[in-house]
Amino acid sequence: MKLAVFDFDSTLMDGETIDFLAQELGIKEKVAKITEEAMSGRLDFFESLTTRVGLLQGLSYQRAVDICASLPPMPGAEETIKALQNKGYKVVCFSGGFRIGTTPFKEKYGLDAEFSNTLHHKDGLLTGLIGGEMMFGFSKGDMLQRIQTVMGITSKQTLVAGDGANDVSMFKYADKRVAFCAHDILKKEANIIIDTKDLTQILAKIEE
């Protein structure tokens, strides 16, 4: 058995979930600037996440769910997931984003599991609060170690792929480390670098 762990935003999905939600409130540019600072490693991930989610306060929860149900997959996402599963991988998503985005994606494209955060809502509106297992810069590495223990597998049997600073922590525990259209901070930790939006390129790289 092998394990492949993918980041969600800008890796499995073409874009940032929170930017799509922020667009509904007319604050996409403001939120996107904070996202860029966090993914580049210039801003603490937890602080950036809570700040950005706070700006979503007042958005209709149902509207948020509807937006997240139709997020665009990265080119090659479905083919790559299926091909890896055929090679014996369990394919999992770790996201510092939101379950209302990762769960529909999992169901549509056949991921084996997804781990993300939950947007708090009350009286039909987002409160600007969030909770979950993926809120810190170290969260993905911590979760990866736990899953490896449960599965009884090592770094040699593990592939990880991401694009931003909050993916660095999981790169420490995988022999195959894919920086996908990534920021420099992650490229420095990778041994597979892909700079075009085509996830199927990973398949060729891991056969080399």
Topology:
Blueprint: E1 2-7, H1 17-24, H2 28-39, H3 45-54, H4 61-68, H5 77-86, E2 89-98, H6 99-109, E3 113-122, E4 125-132, H7 139-151, E5 158-162, H8 168-171, E6 176-180, H9 184-187, E7 192-194, H10 201-207
Parallel strand pairs: 1-2, 1-5, 2-3, 5-6, 6-7
Antiparallel strand pairs: 3-4
What does this protein structure show overall?
This protein has 208 residues and is of the alpha/beta class. It has one domain (2-207): Rossmann fold, CATH 3.40.50.1000. Helices cover 42% and strands 23% of the residues. It contains ten helices and seven strands. The protein has helices at 17-24, 28-39, 45-54, 61-68, 77-86, 99-109, 139-151, 168-171, 184-187, 201-207, and strands at residues 2-7, 89-98, 113-122, 125-132, 158-162, 176-180, 192-194. A seven-stranded mixed sheet has the order 4-3-2-1-5-6-7, sandwiched between helices.
Question: Can you summarize this structure?
Answer:
The protein has ten helices and seven strands. It has 208 residues and is α/β, with parallel strands linked by helices. It is globular, with a radius of gyration of 16 Å.
Q: For the largest beta sheet, what order do the strands appear in spatially? A: 4-3-2-1-5-6-7
Task: Count all strands and give the number.
Answer: 7
Uncertain regions spanning at least 5 consecutive residues: none
For the record, the count of structural domains works out to 1
Mean pLDDT: 96
| Content-based structural category | alpha/beta
Individual helix count? 10
| Global shape | globular
- Termini, distance in Å? 20 Å
CATH class: Alpha Beta
Percent strand equals: 15-25%
